[in-house]
Amino acid sequence: MSYSFFSLAREALRGHVGWRPAWRDAEPQPRYDAVVVGGGGHGLATAYYLASEHGMTSIAVLEKAWIGSGNAGRNTTIIRSNYLLPGNEGFYELSMKLWEGLEQRLNYNTMVSQRGVLNLFHSDAQRDAFARRGNAMRLHGVDAELLDAVQVRARHPYLDFDDARFPIRGGLLQRRGGTARHDAVVWGYARGADARGVDIVQNCEVTGIDVANGRVRGVRTTRGDIAAAKVALACAGNSSRVAALAGLRLPIESHVLQAFVSEGVKPLIDGVITFGAGHFYISQSDKGGLVFGGDIDGYNSYAQRGSLPVVEDVMQSGMAVLPMLGRLRVLRQWGGIMDMSMDGSPIIDASPVAGLYVNAGWCYGGFKATPASGWCFAHLIARDAPHPVAAAYRLDRFARGALLDERGAGAQPNLH
Ligand SMILES: Cc1cc2nc3c(=O)[nH]c(=O)nc-3n(C[C@H](O)[C@H](O)[C@H](O)COP(=O)(O)OP(=O)(O)OC[C@H]3O[C@@H](n4cnc5c(N)ncnc54)[C@H](O)[C@@H]3O)c2cc1C
């Protein structure tokens, strides 16, 4: 059922009795051509592009809880393509281009809002690093503007410029960056995939992966065994646990990342702002709440809740750049599990087990990657060859020492 002004008017006139569910709650079948494990944004986008771009329709997305119950529904919704390294920039720019046409393509309001992402800098050295990143972006055809302190003040006069512990010297702005409504992205891809025949099976946990003679045969689930020649893992924070079911050990640690939403206030922050002297970022939702977050919790966990020291750390960083934050009440707070890779870049690759594919290592930046991740993972699964813009995301780069370390911070997940 297409959503349009006319369908809205028609349903308004007949009491909204004609709307159908956006997707079926499918029963698992005994056999599919391909099974995608994980009903987050990446898994659903993968299934959608497998069906729409590669003509595969015998596909199931298996989700242990409800779709969007993981990080897809827990993130702070920032999208951007302001990357430095060649292996990353093309991929994230593909994602940005897919975001720009997503609503029309899915016929679904994913509330993509290109309100700008501004990374603040606080020292000469940081300005030089940001100028380098901006220049690299422009060489790749991506928009980037280096603002001085006067220009930043004109955009955001409420930031603490002069009295601050870390005076603001300027910022790197990507105007095409912004936000998108995370759960609408999940629902939009689910609806699009379902309309092309994909079975979306919720409350279906994968508990085993059948492998024989080095080739995948299917999966065992809490709702029965399912045979499939191709099994694609898109389990984000649970990637290591699910890959271990096939005997794989991934270079990933799982950590918690927390998010916070304040009480609603009048329109105040009309873009996304990140603090350059600490880990803090903030935007304002369409309902008025300030949405913000900071660093990951310092210990490994699979529990979707965070610890109080990080709450304090995030509030301190926020107050350092935006003192008025201290006058607001925090209404909601939650945590999600980050699949932190050892170089901060993701993995989209075939595994050593034939027919088993891995999509993981998204750290705390995988929401913006959702469209390109699905696009490239579907390409890999359908053609058994990496998509050119995701060719750097090989699993064996950790063995070869060919790390893709955007921050040059070393192989410590907590530094990315
Ligand atoms: C607080 C927070 C803020 C963030 N902010 C941003 C941001 O602003 N911008 C950005 O780009 N990124 C952000 N991220 C990161 C981003 O949300 C993730 O990188 C991305 O959502 C991961 O991909 P996904 O959507 O497919 O993951 P998920 O939604 O986590 O999907 C994985 C799914 O796999 C399922 N699963 C796991 N094990 C099994 C199993 N055995 N069987 C079946 N299903 C299973 C899970 O239930 C889950 O639904 C943030 C994350 C958090 C937690």
Number of strands: 18
The CATH topology of the largest domain: FAD/NAD(P)-binding domain
Strand-residue proportion: 25-35%
Range of helix content: 25-40%
> If helices are DSSP runs of H or I spanning 4 or more residues, what is the number of helices?
10
List the ligand species.
flavin-adenine dinucleotide
Q: Could you tell me the mean pLDDT?
A: 96
Query: What's the SSE pattern?
Result: HEHEEHEHEHEEHEEEEHEEEEHEEEHH
What name goes with the CATH superfamily of the largest domain? FAD/NAD(P)-binding domain
Assigned CATH architecture of the largest domain: 3-Layer(bba) Sandwich
N/C terminus separation: 42 Å
Describe, in plain words, how this protein is organized in 3D.
The chain has helices at residues 5-13, 41-54, 86-106, 124-139, 149-155, 182-195, 239-244, 308-321, 370-383, 397-400, and strands at residues 31-37, 59-62, 78-79, 117-121, 145-148, 170-174, 178-179, 199-201, 206-212, 215-221, 224-233, 252-264, 272-275, 280-284, 289-300, 330-341, 347-350, 356-360. By secondary structure, it is of the alpha/beta class. It has two domains: 24-77 and 182-251 and 343-394 and 401-415, 3-Layer(bba) Sandwich (FAD/NAD(P)-binding domain), CATH 3.50.50; 114-176 and 253-341, D-Amino Acid Oxidase, Chain A, domain 2, CATH 3.30.9.10. Strands 1, 2, 8, 9, 10, 11, 17 and 18 form an eight-stranded mixed sheet that branches. Strands 5-6-4-13-14-15-12-16 form an eight-stranded mixed sheet. A two-stranded antiparallel sheet has the order 3-7. The protein is globular and about 65 Å long. The two termini are 42 Å apart. The relative contact order is 0.18. The mean pLDDT is 96. The structure holds flavin-adenine dinucleotide. Flavin-adenine dinucleotide is lined by residues 37-43, 62-65, 69-72, 74-78, 205-206, 234-238, 242, 257-259, 293, 336, 362, 364-368.
